[in-house]
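In response to reviewer comment 3 from the previous cycle, which asked for concrete evidence that the modeling workflow produces usable outputs, we include below a single protein chain processed end to end. The sequence was submitted unchanged, and the resulting structure tokens are shown without manual editing.
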Amino acid sequence: MHQLIAYESPLASRNPFTKDRLFMPFWDDTNGFESYGGGRYLEISRKAVDARSLTLDFNKAYNPWCAYSDEYSCPIPPPENRLAFSVLAGEAAFTVGAKDGRPTDGLAPAEPSTIELLRAATVHE
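The workflow returned the following structure tokens.
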């Protein structure tokens, strides 16, 4: 069992499409190798965390926009959200395929993991 921090955005909570979402940036041992070096993100349903523990589907982990362009600045995952193992699921490092020049991205699907929510913090914008 691991403890991670999820964040609530007041701006997102006013949007009907994102109002029930929490943002969880994380690092794992794939960062800088198989996945983006600055960490990856997950969005989780607020309803799923009522019991203080939940199962996360890391297949839904995604890269921040800054993984694709220097024009963006992205939040860095907090040290508390550092996983000491490889999450071999979700979006991988952005690379250009050798054969056709098209981007390739994604790791093999994995089983969801059980995570204990340490706390949900509100990010003031």
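The chain is about 5% helix and 30% strand. We consider this sufficient to address the reviewer's concern, and the full set will be provided in the supplementary archive.
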